[in-house]
Design a protein that fits this description.
With 759 residues, this protein is α+β, with helices and mostly antiparallel strands. It contains 26 helices and 17 strands. About 3% of the residues have low confidence.
Amino acid sequence: MQIPPASAPRPPHLWQFFRAGGFDQVKLQTGADLMNLDQLDQKLWVALACPTAGIEFDSKTAALIDTDADGRIRAQELIAAIRWAGSMLKNADDLVTGRDGVSLSAINDSIPEGRQILGSARVILRQLGKAEAGVITVADAAAATQSFANTVFNGDGVILPESADDTAIQQVVREAMAAVGSVMDRSGKPGIDAVKLEEFFGELTRFDAWVSASESEATKILPAGPATAAAAAAMQAVKAKIDDYFGRCRLAAFEGRLSLLLNRTEDDYKALLTKDLTVSAQEVSGFPLSRIVPGQPLSLVTGLNPAHAAAIAVFRSASVAPLLGDRESLAEEEWQTLQYRLAPHTAWLGTKAGVRVETLGIVRVRHILQSSARSVIATLIARDQELEPEASGVASVEKLVRFHRDLIVLATNFVNFRDLYDGGSPAIFQAGTLFLDQRSCSLCITVVDPAKHAVMASLAGAYLAYVECVRKANSQKMTVVAIFSQGDDENLMVGRNGVFYDRKGLDYDATITKIVANPISLRQAFWQPYKRFVRWVEEQIAKRAAEADAAANQKLTAAATAVVSKGGAPTAATPTVSVPPKVDIGTVAALGVAFGAIGGFFSAVATLGKDLWLQGAFAMVGAILGIMVLISGPSLVMTYIKLRKRNLGPILDANGWAVNAKARINVPFGTRLTAIAELPPGSTRDLVDPFEETRRPWRLYLVLALTAYVGWRWSAGRLDSDLPERLRYSHVFQSKSEKIGKDAAQTETNSLAKPAQSP
């Protein structure tokens, strides 16, 4: 079918939707569905943006769709890619097939760009030795693109050093790259383009003009000739200390009493002498350059601060000697004269231009400027640019075949989440499958920063396990977050190991590093109250045992300490007198009431059980089920509500997606995402375990004995004083006796009132 261009008026498109995950999702079944996505209200899109990294999608195709190269594909970029690809085909329905390979006869040659793509595709196939082939694949186009990119001239306007045959020109290109930087060629190698060429020669020209300015006023700017630069540098190295010296001398001449302070105090020197000194010590460098004496010139040979003696020696030879003559001291007037003579050179240095080519030296700079290198390189760049249409055609062919194969995959994981919900191909954000704790989790998503990801993902309401996956064969590492949606969390903890298989089938050692705990399943919710009770009982038993063990150890330690303190050991002749502890009457009474209450409870349970049994087995089963509902019901209800609220959105949003819908992970869908180990159909199982622990039913014996004892005491009436009236034996027995008497009297009355039957 032919799709009109986007600029032409189009009638409203009729959409079809399917429901999955608790919300409506648009069907993408035809080319018209794809080409009219710009008409679909984006509030009905499942996602509005997704990252180009961390997903199972061809990175080169993702880069072609991401036109602004910001690492994210947005709705408008996907729409633009679909409309371009659809317009390059005669029938846009080809886009929904997702096949690798575009038939040459399917390319739309009625438009100029389509004709260019068709011509480039035929050239590519001919160069690959497939001139008779009618289909061009992604591999064919990629091979041609790479082959063309690896040529010296490939149409991108960037030339490499090897683009020139002349070694002198090659050297200039290398010098330009070192000075002003480079740009990447299609081949992935660095080179220069027209912009970099102009930038380089601009730097050469400015540097030449700057040097020429010094040459035109050499006597002023270069008072020491070629050695002026060294003289200025040596002077700048000691200028601050010499200025400080003469300033202190003027201050000492103004007020003689300040001389001691200007030379630093005795305490300063005492503090200095407590340390290990070197001539370059920081403490020494802060002291005056030389001893301060009013009106005294600066000696350049003796009495200098050791930290600056070497710099003064260089200053004397490089600055003083060429400009003032060789001397051993420097007066303040001579210091001012020296600065005055070097001031023009210092000012000239402040106007330096062409700094980036300074390392070439003025001789090399002028040689390049006087040569024909600029025009030769410009000609090479123009020659490369002439091939731009051919390069563009090859790139467009690869773009079309990639879009033909991959756009429908992205659309069904962007506009809708069909791949996630239909159970066929995995979604592009599913990184693989985690096997751990007799479960397989298919919803595993790649994560870069688990700590940052967990902040947002915790709002999903799902049980999340962050797993570090390591493939030791090549030290490859990755981190995924796995969603557990079946079973329970009893055996899930940080440090548990499993195996992760990526989408290519490669296996990784997987270790849980972080857990975001949330309800997993209704089965977990049903048994959770009982497990909590058993855990509480075990904790109480362990606590009491620990307390008893501590008390026993304390008594043993006290006895041993007493023996050691007496300096001997107890002998067999010394009898140990045991004083029986006094028993508090209140304690005895409390114990009696407690045992009475326990007995009453068991009596009531026994009576209720007897009544239910008399009413039938169904009543007994119903009562048991009712009790279980009372215990597990609240946990089931709360968990069911939480499970219905599980949402995939925050998990993907934390990875850079912009999920636009409430992608629920309800109970049925969660059951499919996490599979529990099951025996294969038709398997047989031997239930005899040779290593099973031998268990004695001592708990059953204890319960039966306690029940019999309590029943005997209740039937003897010994618990009546501790029980409510309705549970007392006398009341129950009397009620049953009265009931039996009433039933007998009623039977006799009925028999007397019944008329005699005729013979």
